[in-house]
Design a protein that fits this description.
Layout lengths: L9 H6 L20 H7 L4 H5 L2 H15 L4 E2 L6 H5 L4 E4 L3 E4 L19 H14 L4 E6 L1 H10 L7 H9 L1 H24 L4 E5 L8 H7 L1 H9 L6 E4 L7 H6 L4 E3 L6 H8 L4 E6 L8 H15 L5 E5 L9 H13 L2
Parallel strand pairs: 1-4, 4-5, 5-6, 6-7, 7-8, 8-9
Antiparallel strand pairs: 2-3
Helix pairs in contact: 4-6, 7-8, 7-9, 8-9, 9-11, 14-15
Bound molecules: coproporphyrinogen I (1CP).
Coproporphyrinogen I (1CP) binds next to strand 3.
Length: 340
Amino acid sequence: MSISPAHDSAFLRACRREPVPHTPVWFMRQAGRALPEYRALREGVAMLDSCMRPDLVTEITLQPVRRLGVDVAIFFSDIVVPLKAVGVDLDIVPGIGPVVGQPFRTAADLPRALSPGDVPYITAAVGQLVSELGATPLIGFAGAPFTLASYLVEGGPSKNHARTKALMYGDPALWSQLLDRLADITLAFLRVQIDAGASAVQLFDSWVGALPAADYRTFVQPHSARVLAGVADVPRIHFGVGTGELLHAMGEAGADVVGVDWRLPLDEAVRRIGPGRAVQGNLDPTLVFAPAAVVRDKVRDVLEAGKAAEGHVFNLGHGVLPETDPDMLKLIVETVHEGL
Ligand code: 1CP
């Protein structure tokens, strides 16, 4: 196996907990939404259609790297793309998010497994991107089984995940079958991206913060752990929102880097996660609406707290909000790179 030109990038070094020339920085949801050049490209193209066009995916993924000077590219796609690829009737509705035609109720609704032949456009787009990116690493990603299950069971975005939890607590055998199948799909989707050249992966369990730690360990962790074990040949980032009480368990699931939202200072997150893992985060995504001087101070606070970690990848505590001024993101990148 040849060594990738991105191997010695600050990002991959931080993930491996090696010394870095500067703290690496990227933003969840950096590709899309906040950039006018993204909106121009997406004009008249439905979200899921754009994810199947390697030319568009490549261009959208590269836009924030060019404009913002971030250290990493994140593949432009969505967590529901592999579900669509195995035939689940769903769409991404503007202003809402993923909506599923027939929500999951019984074993007859189990999605089928995913094979690489189902997503040739992912292989093509990753290959094209990796050759254009050179020494800039590309992060592949997927949704974790719990978060994907929430969309399938609720039929769309949900605040309290009530039906999802009703299935989990009420029919543990069917729940386990569903999460097992989703783990297969997620793992296959991540493997496609790694095999095409992605140099790290992020497993998004965005909504798992809805669970107490004991139930997370029983009903979710084994499935996420199986996914993460299957991609141990690259650095693995594992992230969720509102996961202050789950950080240790999410690390245990097999993450090299644990993503932290904005609610907990990084030094406290590091204490909870324990040794042997790097952290990613965690500027509040709404801070970009504060004056520049405040933003710079808060960025430095995050860098200071991040010193407690064996490796720190700077990011927001969740995705870029659509109203964000790209110049503010640029200011954040510059401030992170300046260091303390
Ligand atoms: O990060 C990037 O720059 C790559 C692009 C990306 C990623 C990583 C998109 C494009 N989606 C995702 C992941 C994703 N999708 C997650 C995990 C990350 C997170 O927690 O934010 C989740 C939960 C989704 C589901 C989803 N897709 C939502 C959230 C709905 C809810 O439940 O609140 C939404 C709004 C989408 C649509 C979507 N995905 C991506 C974009 C640019 C959009 C906007 C749709 C459009 O332009 O029509």
